[in-house]
Amino acid sequence: MNNNIKKILSIDSGASNIRIVIFDELGNTIFSDKINEGANIAIDRENCTKQIIKVLSETLNKASLSYDDINHFSIGVAGISDESARELLFKRLEECKISNRTHLTTDVNPIFEMNCSDNSAILVSVGTGAICLGRSIDDKIEKVGGAGLDIDPGSGFWMGKELLIKLSFNKNEEHNESEFDDLLNMTLNSFNTKELNLGIDQVMQSNDRYRKIASLSSVILELGENGNEIAISIIQQSSQHIADMIIFLCDQISYINDELILIANGSIMNNEFFRKSLSDALIFDFSSIKWLFPNISSAYYPGLLSAKMLGMKVNINDLIKNGAQQL
Questions:
Q1: What is the number of H-type helices and E-type strands within the chain?
Q2: Per the CB 3.0–4.6 Å rule, which of 112, 244, 313, 314 could disulfide with 133?
Q3: Are 220 and 288 found together in one domain?
């Protein structure tokens, strides 16, 4: 391995998953990995900051590299706007002696900045959480959502909560019994339990409760696609909340195009059935909707943003040409 070629370790740390890549200034991907555990530092700053440092260390070990082999560390992390959590993470980076080589950002801003340099498109990121980003005519990035998983409506976590509420309190004549039972059985299977109340109690006591509750969105989307009316109602409510966020953001940034260009990010936005529901909710406000999808993993974007700031010439096309893939 040529030690003269600069290397970047880039992390996308969301509430449900952590994605990691190491790439060099020539656009070669040296290492990539995905961990099915989240680290939103605003939710649990102690454990989540420890988790990020652990991921850094384990990644270097797996790649047979040391901290000194990396020229720059780029960490996009959910909850970074929480000042005390950010300070704690920075302190742990100082303990690793890499704080002066590390750039911290949110988990979504790099995707937006590297895919949209003007007012022409909006980033809609819906996974465990939900946030929309746009650029005003005076080049200021504005956001709607991202206030917290317990606050923002329409997210995967919100959908999971809505399902648990319906399963806990709403078994009545308004619901098709078979559809209700399908949702209940898939939820019990997802929580690995035979009793709903017991499963909910176990999940709520878990440090991983946000990811586990948000994972129910996949149950909702699957059954919604198969015509389950209870699931469809949750999807429609969720997509209406996201549509309201988009419309509000368009007003904030003075978006004037008749065609709405949306950069889709996150597990929920990757679902075609959900996008169709969202399009239906927006149809009266825009003549048409165009979807754009990042064609490399979100893990690359914090590193690409850092590379741009550092004057390194690596770009998305270099990475794609050299085999970068989704994680």
A1: 12, 10
A2: 112
A3: yes
